[in-house]
Amino acid sequence: MVNWKPALPGAIWNCHSRALMFESPGAILFTIGPLTVRWYGVMIALGFLAATIVAARLARHWGLDSEKLVNAALVAFIGGVLGARLYFVALSWSQFADHPEDILATWKGGGSIHGGIIGGLLSGIAYLKLARLPILACCDIGGVVLPLAQAIGRWGNFFNSEAFGRPVPPDFPLKLYIPPESRPVAYQNSEFFHPTFLYESMWDLTIFALLYFLVAEKLRPYPGVTFLVYLAAYSLGRIFIEMLRVDSIMAFGYPVPIVASVAGLVLSVTGIVALMARYRSRLRSA
Predict the structure, then answer these.
(1) Which of 21, 95, 193, 206 has the most CB atoms around it within 10 Å of its CB?
(2) Dist CA 196 CA 191 (whole Å)
(3) Is residue 100 part of a domain?
(4) Residue 250 within any structural domain of the chain
(5) Is residue 111 part of a domain?
(6) Domain boundaries, position 36
(7) How many domains does the chain have?
(8) pLDDT 10s digits, 42-62
(9) Would you say residue 2 lies in a domain?
(10) CA Rg, the chain, in Å?
(11) 36 to 2, 5, 9, 171: CA distances (angstroms)
């Protein structure tokens, strides 16, 4: 039996209040017997597909083996999905202690971008070494396309009615309706929230456009710098967006995503300065 739900992202424009409201049509796209296809998985897959197509194009333009790079992207994707989930589970263990069967249930949502970056980077680098591809140049390509994948993947949070921000008044110009069953206990009486999934999606798309059209080619003589620029830009945006969230994972009284983003920003900026100094020193001594 096929249960098809051809619902698309709900966005309603109210001319009187000049407000744009988003409302998820539900987490499930369709079911065929025991098989359930969820929007979350579809958006993650679409993000990966779009990023891989652009990465292959960049690889050919830069004179790299595009087939091997696509293989590296697949390995990094698998490592990233596992890393994102395990990172999330480790920081939210109280939610999984009594339900260990849900640990690998990534289709239900629940993952960490920071864990995904770490897992994807480590697994991708391992493959690049085996394939004898230039690691820093390939990481730069990854830095260009990662925000594209993230921009698309963030819509999975929308369909799951998760990763939203603090409550907003009904006349707020941009708002996200969250059903009662998905609201935190403290906000049961609130209907509309900041659509932080949209804020981050737009920020990621902006990063991708800037890197792809303006930055990557100019920084191509400096391998590794483009990836660090991506990490710095993403971390900066995530710090401010995370401040609006109501579901940040906490550890020792601190929001883990903000701490991780600050660390990522500091490390990436430091790395950019160090790498550029190194490359300029080589040019002077050449």
Answers:
(1) 193
(2) 15
(3) yes
(4) no
(5) yes
(6) 10-218
(7) 1
(8) 999 999 999 999 999 999 999
(9) no
(10) 20
(11) 10, 11, 19, 36
